[in-house]
């Protein structure tokens, strides 16, 4: 019968002879615990010193071709993988960039990551991606995990909830390159890649005015969000330039959820004089509006024009096609990665700066009220 453990091994008791004992494993019995092969394991199999294995794997010329071949074959048989953490402790670099975005499922952020990866891979860096899912707590946890993994730099787009930035201030103070993109933090002296949100919003609002719209509502985001404030400022600037009144009830701040967008729409439709156009600063909410208007038998664009901010393939597939501002997320990702490489090359001499990526107005049927306009107008 089983009778506990001795030094980690199962102890047995025989009732017939009243004797306690343990049983050795037969030679060659595989361990249940997964073992990651090490340089020592490779050295033991080949019959050489671990230092010889290390030099052979690193391509040193003082190892004979025969020995190197034997070591490479043994490493392959044992599925040996280099210990990246050990290498980083020795070289003080991991050749890894940490990227933190709000939501990988959103095409904007997925495309930005593609731009980052293209530049990083070409320069010999790996990319480690985390997402906050728009949660401040998840963002803090992910930043801590990336720093603990000894990434060489951090490229970050903050969540909608983030108002405290201590979790990025500390790595920046320690000399870890921090690059902000899209949703940035002005409390950290870091390189930044931003959009000209104000100009983009101004241009798309002016486009609606040129179509004859006079009561233009704006579906803005949380007032605490910088991009929401910038896009609202561009909208207001266009109204002022064209002498249109600023009507408080036509401005709604929402959390970007579909239900919030539809609730704002219903409130506007209940007004004695509903808006004749809606500018959604988030393109996904523009989709929500078009679908909701269809259910309410309101024609787009004849009864109400709809425009969004941010362009992706669904904008051209929905009926009617959605007029948007193309943010060029791939360029944003490329620029963010390039700023990181520049900071790594210049070290202490690097001077953080802000790069602005210009957007592009893409006109489709959702905003056209019978007037002739160009299909695209570069800002």
Automatic annotation (TrEMBL):
<feature type="domain" description="HTH lacI-type">
    <location>
        <begin position="37"/>
        <end position="91"/>
    </location>
</feature>
<dbReference type="Pfam" id="PF00532">
    <property type="entry name" value="Peripla_BP_1"/>
</dbReference>
<dbReference type="InterPro" id="IPR001761">
    <property type="entry name" value="Peripla_BP/Lac1_sug-bd_dom"/>
</dbReference>
<keyword id="KW-0805">Transcription regulation</keyword>
<keyword id="KW-0804">Transcription</keyword>
<dbReference type="InterPro" id="IPR010982">
    <property type="entry name" value="Lambda_DNA-bd_dom_sf"/>
</dbReference>
<dbReference type="GO" id="GO:0003677">
    <property type="term" value="F:DNA binding"/>
</dbReference>
<protein>
    <submittedName>
        <fullName>LacI family DNA-binding transcriptional regulator</fullName>
    </submittedName>
</protein>
<keyword id="KW-0238">DNA-binding</keyword>
<dbReference type="InterPro" id="IPR000843">
    <property type="entry name" value="HTH_LacI"/>
</dbReference>
<dbReference type="InterPro" id="IPR028082">
    <property type="entry name" value="Peripla_BP_I"/>
</dbReference>
<dbReference type="Pfam" id="PF00356">
    <property type="entry name" value="LacI"/>
</dbReference>
């Amino acid at each position: 019968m089983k009778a506990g453990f001795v030094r980690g091994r199962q102890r047995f008791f025989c009732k017939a002879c009243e004797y306690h004992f343990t049983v050795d494993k037969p030679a060659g019995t595989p361990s249940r615990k997964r073992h990651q092969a090490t340089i020592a394991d490779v050295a033991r199999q080949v019959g050489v010193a671990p230092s010889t294995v290390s030099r052979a794997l690193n391509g040193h010329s003082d190892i004979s071709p025969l020995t190197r071949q034997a070591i490479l074959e043994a490493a392959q048989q044992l599925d040996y993988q280099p210990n990246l953490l050990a290498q980083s402790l020795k070289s003080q670099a991991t050749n890894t960039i940490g990227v933190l975005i709000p939501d990988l499922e959103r095409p904007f952020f997925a495309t930005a990551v593609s731009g980052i990866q293209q530049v990083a891979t070409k320069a010999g860096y790996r990319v480690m991606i985390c997402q906050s899912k728009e949660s401040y707590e998840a963002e803090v946890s992910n930043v801590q995990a990336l720093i603990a993994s000894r990434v060489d730099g951090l490229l970050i787009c903050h969540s909608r909830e983030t108002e405290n930035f201590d979790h990025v201030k500390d790595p920046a103070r320690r000399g870890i390159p921090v690059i902000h993109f899209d949703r940035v933090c002005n409390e950290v002296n870091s390189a930044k890649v931003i959009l000209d949100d104000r100009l983009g919003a101004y241009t798309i609002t002016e486009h609606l005015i040129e179509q004859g719209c006079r009561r233009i509502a704006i579906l803005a985001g949380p007032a605490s969000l910088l991009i929401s404030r910038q896009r609202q400022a561009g909208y207001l600037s266009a109204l002022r330039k064209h002498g249109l009144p600023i009507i408080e009830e036509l401005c709604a701040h929402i959390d970007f959820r579909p239900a919030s967008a539809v609730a704002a729409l219903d409130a506007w439709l209940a007004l004695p004089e509903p808006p004749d156009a809606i500018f959604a600063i988030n393109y996904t909410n523009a989709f929500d509006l078009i679908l909701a208007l269809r259910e309410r038998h309101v024609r787009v664009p004849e009864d109400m024009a709809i425009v969004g901010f941010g362009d992706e393939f669904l904008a051209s597939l929905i009926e009617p096609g959605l007029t948007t501002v193309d943010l060029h997320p791939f360029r944003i990702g490329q620029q963010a990665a390039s700023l990181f490489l520049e900071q790594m090359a210049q070290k202490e001499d690097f001077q953080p700066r802000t790069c602005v990526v210009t957007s592009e107005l893409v006109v489709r049927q959702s905003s056209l009220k019978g007037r002739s306009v160009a299909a695209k107008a570069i800002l």
